[in-house]
Specification:
mainly alpha
C-alpha cells in the first residue's frame, strides 16, 4: 500500500455545513455564511498549493507536515484579516481541517 493523506468532511458549501450541523449540534457558534465559506475555500487552496510548491509529492511525511504548517499560517492570517467575517468559526474549520487530517503510511 502507498502512503496517503486523508481528510474528514471539509465544509466548503452550505450543504456540507448542514451535514456537519446535523451530526454535531452546536458545532458552530454561528452558521458560516457564503463569505465565510468563500474565505475558507480560498484558504484551503492556498494551503494545498503552498504545500505542494514547497515539497512536492516525493516525501509524504514532509507534505503532511507542510499542510499542517500552512494551515497554522492561514489561521493566523484569519485572525489578522477576517474581522468582518465570522472568524471564530473559520478558525474552527481550519483547526478541524488540520486535526482531522490523517496520514496513512
Amino acid at each position: 500500500m502507498r502512503s496517503a493523506i486523508g481528510f474528514d468532511i471539509i465544509p466548503t458549501s452550505e450543504m456540507d455545513v448542514n451535514t456537519i450541523m446535523d451530526q454535531d449540534i452546536g458545532y458552530y457558534e454561528i452558521i458560516p455564511d457564503e463569505s465565510d465559506l468563500e474565505w475558507f475555500r480560498a484558504a484551503i487552496v492556498r494551503i494545498v498549493v503552498n504545500s505542494f510548491e514547497n515539497c512536492g509529492m516525493e516525501n509524504m511525511t514532509m507534505l503532511y507536515n507542510k499542510i499542517k504548517m500552512f494551515t497554522n499560517r492561514e489561521r493566523y492570517a484569519c485572525v489578522r484579516e477576517c474581522k468582518e467575517l465570522n472568524y471564530g468559526d473559520i478558525l474552527r474549520m481550519l483547526y478541524d481541517f488540520k486535526e482531522n487530517m490523517e496520514y496513512v503510511r
